[in-house]
Amino acid sequence: xxxxxxxxxxxxxxxxxxxMRRTYIFDTIKSVFRLFGYAPLETPSMENLSTLLGKYGxxxxxxxxxxxxxGDYGAKLSEEELRQASKISEKGLRYxxxxxxxxxxxxxxxxxxxxxxxxxxxxxxxxxxxxxxRYREFYQCDVDVIGSKSLLSEVELxxxxxxxxxxxxxxxxxxxxxxxxxxxxxxxIGHADKMVDITVAIDxxxxxxxxxVKAELRERGIDDEAITKLQPILExxxxxxxxxxxLGDIIGESETGVKGIEExxxxxxxxxxxxxxxxxxxxxxxxxxxNYYTGAIFEVKANDFAxxxxxxxxxxxxxxxxxxxxxxxxxGISFGADRIYDVMLGLNLFPEELACxxxxxxxxxxxxxxxxxxxxxxxxRDRGVASxxxxxxxxxKKQMEYANRRGIPYVVIIxxxxxxxxxxxxxxxxxxxQSEMTFEELVATL
Amino acid sequence: xxxxxxxxxxxxxxxxxxxMRRTYIFDTIKSVFRLFGYAPLETPSMENLSTLLGKYGxxxxxxxxxxxxxGDYGAKLSEEELRQASKISEKGLRYxxxxxxxxxxxxxxxxxxxxxxxxxxxxxxxxxxxxxxRYREFYQCDVDVIGSKSLLSEVELxxxxxxxxxxxxxxxxxxxxxxxxxxxxxxxIGHADKMVDITVAIDxxxxxxxxxVKAELRERGIDDEAITKLQPILExxxxxxxxxxxLGDIIGESETGVKGIEExxxxxxxxxxxxxxxxxxxxxxxxxxxNYYTGAIFEVKANDFAxxxxxxxxxxxxxxxxxxxxxxxxxGISFGADRIYDVMLGLNLFPEELACxxxxxxxxxxxxxxxxxxxxxxxxRDRGVASxxxxxxxxxKKQMEYANRRGIPYVVIIxxxxxxxxxxxxxxxxxxxQSEMTFEELVATL
Lengths: 446, 446
Fold this sequence. Notes:
16 strands, 19% strand, 18 helices, eight-stranded mixed beta sheet, five-stranded mixed beta sheet, homodimer
């Protein structure tokens, strides 16, 4: 077998170095979720196809990874049946965490204590064409509270975003919008049915300028009178509060619009009152998942690294309706671990000590010295210091190279000379400095 | 959709309560692995079928979950091709962590620093018939060092077993044996080719008694002279050291056998010298994975709970030969998370505070009180105390029930009366005791 083995395209191995960094991100995020009382949930990697199909649109159905029925699947089927995937496959790999979560809530509705605050960090699979930054297996990291319509949850999510990125050291901008405001705008200018068209056009304002946006609106069937009404909205500026006031003047006749304005005011006021370390920015061009979300929507971008949004989410009114349980309102956000990883790597934000969890390597110089080193290693481990002894008396150069390539910061050398005198030489691998100390000093120092 | 959705048979949802307990087990195990310098690794859930097939025997091949090629898989194939899984599926789900690890080592041999100490905690999938305690998706938890033949690694694994189960509070027995000793026994009695038969018979000694074992040996083609030679081995007793001495007298002419005895002596001596908190027990009937392991083998059982082995492993001489890279010796063990979970649940060993990570719930009594509570919650979170405020001013009973069912130990009540006087009522949900304190006292107390 001359050819090296490989892995399926679009999948990845995560080396120890990458794992340490990824774990750091996940652990940080989890610790914040816990602080807010969110509890972990895990669902199976495979779901019944009946659970998954029809939930992600035609395109999504095509991107599901289907699992062959086990056993002698082909044998008893007609050719026609064989050609229908449904006869040979009844299970698929999780495509996202939202549908399995909805399925879980419906299936376990009698055991769950509502409002249900859960987080879920698991891989999902999509048979997408692999390309730079797009994988066929990747982790999603979702946090949601369902069973409550309270806007305190939105405030809490803003706080979570602020704390997560502050802990990770990433400077971010949190943009917010509200689906009800978008509907209110469309309604106010007499085009309630064109909410998506209007939002898509507004979204291009920064890129193509006011005149081109107007042209696009016309193309999309918005009449001139409506465009004139829309103009002050396109030119909205000032603080969130100022924007909301002006918006109220313009769309005040839309009941839904007014509700959206009130919601955002409540959220912004509470965020300010609590002194949360981030000021969300009202951005009417934000249009995340319009068919799904029904209230506030969030999107987070890194200030100092161009990569698209690194977190996002919103309020939905009907998570579980697809499984026959209507009226379950909730709000949630998702953290994009792969992008956060790229931002942190690009901006050099990972703590230095992540490189290696081992603090000290004891060089192995033979049987007698080994015994002494092992005793000391055991003592250090008792004190919680991650330590290793090189497993065999290899050449010194090889052992030092091991420490070096692994990124182990300290190396301890106990040769026959040191052993006789009851001392150890400790070398700081970064500075190259060496010093001699007694075994007791060594244990205390490390 | 009247019918509740379900999940594929043999798979499981893990509720928050179960997740907290599972995470506790995994975190404990990981913390010990890290202490010994093992680094995390993750491989993709799907591997190419060429990587997986032929590695687990015919039975194993049948138990692989295969993934349908994405796209229009059936359309262009003949009926014959359709019936061959190979034409419609090229990927399968990970069956264990060992083969992907071997694949990783061969694929990344030029980047890896050897000896390579890695741990890997990920789910695996097997299309086994589901039954009590046997799932189609379950986690494995492997730790291995490869690229060194040093017995220090075996000693280290004994230490890891001792520390993991001591931390988890499970009293265990660690049995050890050595494949070389088993071969030496077979060789000494003139049946080198019957090692497996002899071991299987010895394994039954406890259950069926000496005479029946002899009868079974005869059935398996072992002659009476050989059985007579074997008798003292069957009756071996005493300490590990005594057993090894007697064994040396009996199988001293087998070079391999002597090597096995020496290996075990080195391991036992080092375990004793280091004061490791567990004394492995030499058990010649232990016969774990005989075709795979080549040296020491391990098996751990819980002393106070009948469930089979909860951890096991051994030394192998050729991990990566299947991928064309010979001579990679290593040693590793695997922790059975599901069984460890059952033992801990059965013996009530999970720490009480695992039930819920939230320490305190602030009851929500309306807009004004909510503002005050949210300020206090933010202060507590700043200090790392996991706290929640009930998101809406629901009935008191409902809010108390929420705290109760979630297992939140403290509830804080700030009503209009308390708000006026600047105090809070704190209720200990376990004892039912209530006391009043100022906001500063509250933050300091919690």
